[in-house]
Amino acid sequence: REIYNNQRPHEALAMQTPAQRYRMSLRPMPTSLAPIEYSERDHVITVGWNGFVKFQGHKLRLSSALHRLPVALRPDDLHDGCFDLYFCHQRFMRLDMNALTASN
Prior knowledge:
Layout: H1 2-7, H2 18-21, E1 43-46, E2 52-55, E3 58-61, E4 70-75, E5 82-87, E6 90-96
Antiparallel strand pairs: 1-4, 2-3, 4-5, 5-6
């Protein structure tokens, strides 16, 4: 690490080392993050162990990275039975309840 960051020049950095090019951010890191909030029309559920959630009688696998975090299922006004899944402001999945089998 010492050699890579401080001694060895990099062609992509105009033959400078990463330590020579590094600039500290002017933006301070927040001491705590704001709570996650969703719209009243959203169905908010907390992701369980191994990334699973239950919604309308179906067990769905989302992501274990979301364990213990709230996600929102937002109904699609144009397509009955379809939901967009959000974490904070980021849509990460589309769910069509009509396409799920009874065993899910």
